[in-house]
Task: structure prediction
Amino acid sequence: MIPLDEARSFVRQACRPIASVSLPLRASIGLVTSTDLLAQESVPPFANSAVDGYAVIAADIAAASTTAVELEVIATVAAGARFDGVVASGQAVRIMTGAPFPDGADASVMVEETESRDGGARVVISTSVSAGTAVRAAGSDIVEGALLFPAGTVLNAMALGVLASVNIRTIEAIPRLRVAVVSTGDELIDDGGPLGPGQIRESNKAMLVAALGQAGCDVSDLGVVRDDEHALEAVLRAAADDHDAIVTSGGVSMGDFDPVKAVLSRIAEMRWMQIAIKPAKPFAFGLLTNNAGAAIPIFGLPGNPVSSFVSFELLARPALRSMMGHTNVDRTVVAAISDDPIKRRRDGKTHFDRVDGAFEADGRWHFRRGASQGSHQLSWSASANGLAMVPDGEGVSGGDSVDVMLLEL
Result:
């Protein structure tokens, strides 16, 4: 068996980021930028009011907190309009939030501190403000030419809003990976038909397609390929021509009577691993050169459903995320409290047990371990939100601290 860190390092080193492309802003959510993004415009582009109220000269209402001041209203300015005049002493402009600030005025008073008179021709102000109050200066948020996001930034929804605000409509970013998913085996049924002797419903592919989508990939479901070497080779070679990576499920265990090993060993540079973890001990990884000369990563996951999921989380998902330019590729790990004892035997492996937990009043993440931990028992795993990393040994006692990898969406 090899250490998990060795297997992860081997896979990551072979999975290089793919080339960046130019994309419309609306298509860039969750992607990693490949160039620095600079502001093309200032925000706001002009001084404007931060409140609905009146634009005034602050000195005119300096005594308004003790003695109300009455001013002449010379105009009303809504957002999207403008006032071309100049506010003089004794005058005010009725102004809406976001409207361009008139020349001559230097502060805004909220409408709640005022009283309109003479049908809006005059206003009584009952508070004083200092110059600059409730005025958003031009460029007070973003100055033209400023660095907004350096290369390597993961663009979230707010970042897209910032970029739109300075008229950036396209960006250079690393696109979503195109990943093909293949399940293999004569025993698998995924068409809804009746089960024959020895047959089972296909579930790994459905799980992996969803997990890859959550990881930010564009996924092609290539279906179930029967135990036919020629058919499997044709599917894999075609997938390598049209995708950035391939994920297979099944046929990587020691002693398997399966065409997966025969085909992949013949057409790709593969490493067949036995990793010191449970579940997901068997794992395969390699590179398949396509017709364009590109080396396409292939992740060979085990067929048992839980093993397939755990190996995806520990080995495939981080590598695929790194290919999309992410530097923070691993799930969050917390030092958690096991509310129950976890029994195990020394076997040279780290056990990744499915657990359900939450942060509690003491500020720690507490969890309970599911009773169904077999590599074929997927049902309880759907309720788990973490993988407890139980070190080799005789287990842990209730109340002990255990590292847990959180399975956030």
